Amino acid sequence: MSHEFTLYxxxxxxxxVPHVMLDELGASYELSHVDxxxxxxxxxxxxxxxxxxxxxxxxxxxxxxxxxxxxxxLMLGDLHTNSGLVPGVDDPDRPFFLHWLFALATxxxxxxxxxxxxxxxxxxxxxxxxxxxxxWTQLTKFFDALEDAISGHPWFMERGFGPLDIYTVxxxxxxxxxxxxxxxxTRPKLKRLYWATHERKSIRDLWEFYRFPEI
Length: 215
Hints:
Blueprint: E1 5-9, H1 16-25, E2 29-33, H2 44-49, E3 57-60, E4 65-67, H3 69-79, H4 94-116, H5 128-149, H6 163-171, H7 177-185, H8 188-198, H9 201-209
Parallel strand pairs: 1-2
Antiparallel strand pairs: 1-3, 3-4
Helix pairs in contact: 1-3, 1-6, 1-9, 4-5, 4-6, 6-8
C-alpha cells in the first residue's frame, strides 16, 4: 500500500512543522531526506519537485508536489477535515486561523532567519550585526502580537491544539536560556503555549529527530 504523502526534509530545518502535523493527524507518509549540506536541494531533480528549491516539500499520492509551510499545513488540514486541526471554510475560526498561520509563516519565520542568518540579507559583513539587531527588534514586536492574539489556555486558539501552536514553537527556536526567560517574563500566554506544546510527544520526539537545541 502506497503512502498518502511524501515529506522531503532535512535535519535542522522547518520541515519539523509539517512533520509534526503529519504525526498529529496519524497520516500515512514516507520521508525522503534531501541533504542540503551537499546542495541536494539545488539539483534539477529536486527543482522539478519545488521550483523554489526549498525544504520542506510535500508530495501527494497522485504525484503533485508543493512547498511552503503555511500551504502544507493548510492542505493537510483540509484533506483531514475530521481532525478539527484546521478550521473549515465555513468555520467562524477560519479567518483568525488563516491570518496567524500566514503571519507565522511570513513575518515570524522570515524574521528568525534574519536574526540567525544575517549574511542572507546583506552583502556587507560589517552590516551583519545591525541586520540582526533590527531583526530582533521586529521579532520582539511580533512576540507582542502573538501574546495579544493567543486566545486559548494553553493553546493559541480556544478550539485546542493545532498548527498555530506547532509553528509558534518553531518561531521561538531562537529563544534559549536567559533570552527565553526574558522574553517570556512579560508574555505569559506565549510562555504557557510554548511549554505546553513542548510537552506533547510528537513535538518532543521530532524536536530530537531534527537535532534542534535541547530545551
